Automatic annotation (TrEMBL):
CDD domains: 2-Hacid_dh_5
GO molecular function, a single term: NAD binding
Keyword Oxidoreductase annotated: yes
The protein's name in its UniProt record: D-isomer specific 2-hydroxyacid dehydrogenase NAD-binding domain-containing protein
Length: 377
């Protein structure tokens, strides 16, 4: 470059390095558990850096965490379960927010959800294998009378109890999957392997083979990608449609619908009465979705009155469940503290989903699991 006035050539000014795009992670996993996922993001996208904040959970509640404002302002992508910036205006560079949980009803009243169009993506598909295993495990524990023998072992008592424990193996039994998403599809895969009949229920009709395909995130070798396992499909958002489905003599009912205004207390006394009428042997109910989908008082009454065979609950209303709540002592009810989604592969799968959505966003494609705000999921 020549200086004005014909003087000597001046040195080129140094070019400012382009600032990298920022992936801001605020999730309740120790950073060492996410190390592999972080490295894969930074290896695949050289123009990206990851900043990681461990958001601890204590007694079922996230602990408040402070994130520097300049990082929030820079964020191009956010990964989270509970934490969100206060407003959309505080993240002007954001391209999408990737939740590492399947249901995001916990942020349904947040301004970013209600007052912005920022793409929000759930982690549907990440939980399929482990939660399906939880469902099948609970169903087998119930159908084989395991609790009776477990209590007997603790008493150091040997008693085969042929008269007291009636084992009902799964061959020929019928499982109804209320909400045929990634978890329900993996339940269907395992159930079919055990010789069970599978019925699927979705809010929207699935009349064609194409409409029954799974277009979400699928862990390889799992689920029902083509929607071929159910022997029958049911659909609708009315009580009449739901009741038709519940009248199919179900041995196992798996609840996998998202929590919305319309699914709150979706199952109550009339539904439990209908299950009993259809299957007097007793339907076993497994809820791995959200506690308020079931009217909990009605569930306790149904268990006490023998309207259903039992219940396996990984979610309750409220959470944590108070020590004095009568659900703890309801007959034939097994409760776990919202842990069915836990697995050593969780974080790696979640980061794999993040990378897929980053690829799609950069290519101008459709994001995986983008939430439709009008539907609530």
């Amino acid at each position: 470059m020549v200086a004005m006035g014909g003087g000597p050539e001046l040195p080129h000014p140094p070019h400012a390095a382009k600032e990298k795009e920022l992936v801001l992670c605020v999730v309740p996993f120790p950073e060492n558990a996410a190390k592999k996922g972080i490295e894969k993001v930074e290896e695949e996208f050289e123009d990206v850096e990851v900043r990681y904040y461990y958001s601890r959970v204590e007694k079922g509640r996230p602990v408040q965490i402070d994130i520097p404002e300049d990082l929030i302002h820079r964020a191009t992508y956010i990964c989270t379960l509970f934490w969100l910036p206060p407003t959309a205006s505080s993240i002007p560079s954001i391209k999408f927010i990737q939740f590492f949980n399947a249901g995001i009803n916990n942020v349904a009243t947040h301004p970013i959800y209600t007052d912005s169009t920022i793409p929000l993506c759930s982690a549907n598909g990440v939980h399929g294998p482990q939660i399906a295993e939880w469902v099948v495990m609970m169903d087998l524990l119930h159908s084989h009378g395991f609790v009776t023998y477990w209590e007997q072992q603790k008493r150091r008592e040997w008693n085969s109890r042929y008269q007291e424990v009636v084992v009902r193996d799964r061959v020929g039994k019928r499982v109804g999957v209320l909400g045929y998403g990634s978890i329900g599809r993996q339940v269907a895969r395992v159930a079919k392997a055990m010789g069970m009949d599978v019925l699927a229920y979705t809010a929207s009709p699935k009349p064609t083979p194409e409409s029954r395909k799974d277009t979400g995130f699928i862990v390889p070798g799992t689920g029902d990608p083509d929607g071929s396992f159910p022997s029958a499909w049911y659909s609708g958002t009315s009580k009449e449609a739901l009741h038709e489905f519940l009248s199919q003599e179900l041995d196992l009912l798996v609840i996998g619908v998202p929590l919305t205004k319309s699914t709150t207390h979706l199952l109550s006394t009339p539904e439990f009465e209908l299950l009993h009428k259809s299957n007097p042997r007793g339907t076993y109910v497994a809820n791995i979705a959200r506690g308020p989908i079931i009217d909990q008082a009605a569930l306790i009454a149904a268990l006490e009155g023998g309207l259903i065979g039992g219940a396996a609950l990984d979610v309750t209303d409220p959470e944590p469940l108070p020590k004095e709540d009568p659900l703890w002592t309801a007959p034939n009810c097994t409760i776990t503290p919202h842990v069915s989604g836990n697995t050593d592969a969780y974080v790696d799968r979640a980061f794999e989903l993040l990378r897929e959505n980053m690829r799609r966003e950069r290519a101008g494609g459709k994001l995986v699991n983008e939430v439709e705000r009008g539907r609530g999921y």
